[in-house]
Amino acid sequence: MSGTTNILVVGIGGQGVMTATEILAEAAIALGHDAKKTEVAGMAQRGGVVSSHLRFGPRVLSPQIAPGEADVLLAFEAAEGLRWMHMLRPGAAALVNDSRFVPPVVELGLYDYPADPVGQMKAAGTKVVAFDATTIAQELGDIRLGNTVMLGAIADQLPFSADILLECVLKRFQRKGEKVVALNRQAFAAGRAAVGTAEAAAA
């Protein structure tokens, strides 16, 4: 376990950004890493913008990721991915749910929603892996599965086995019964597959 891994998770309140970060931290801790995460930056209520920093490694003193040092940007929403892409280190990837969720600040007319956030990220030279996590979740029967789809998406970008992360995901849902566990297993696999498909298409 050499070095520290920096993961930035961003999105809109209600999408499960904080839960995803907690599960990622649990997986790292289960493997003996020291892990630190921020709680919330921005508005955690449904519809507000949310971001969470996670750092893990042999010894981590602060959860705060400096601009240009994130190893992975996990964006539950495309415009938030665009807004936070400056946090990525050179050559690091942004995994982006390209479904559109318009936050209240846009609906109130305080900000304009970018016409093509994924396109803008790519034009700026960011490595972007974009896929529609929301539609994948809906096709599985529950939009709330989007959280697990996103965790599946990041599973192969981590310095430990995807099985460790899957185990932590499924542990969360054990008390809800076998059907829910099975759905989350499918959602996780679908997220991993979506990233593989998107990367192959971009190659």
3D architecture notes:
It is a single chain. The chain is an alpha/beta fold and 203 residues long. The protein has helices at 17-30, 78-84, 104-107, 117-123, 133-139, 146-154, 162-173, 178-202; strands spanning 5-12, 34-37, 41-42, 49-57, 70-75, 88-97, 127-131. Strands 1, 2, 3, 4, 5, 6 and 7 form a seven-stranded mixed beta sheet that branches. α2 runs parallel beside α4 and α6 (146-154) packs across α8.
What is the compact description of this entry?
The protein has 203 residues and is α/β, with parallel strands linked by helices.
Strand residues, percent: 15-25%
Terminal-residue CA separation: 30 Å
The count of β-strands is 7
Mean pLDDT: 89
Structural class, please? alpha/beta
Count of alpha and pi helical runs: 8
Unreliable residue stretches: none
For the CA atoms, what is the radius of gyration?
16 Å
User: Which sequence of SSEs, written as H and E, runs from N to C?
Assistant: EHEEEEHEHHEHHHH
Q: In percent, how helical is the residue content?
A: 40-55%
Tell me about the largest β-sheet.
7 strands, mixed
Any idea what the shape is? Answer: globular
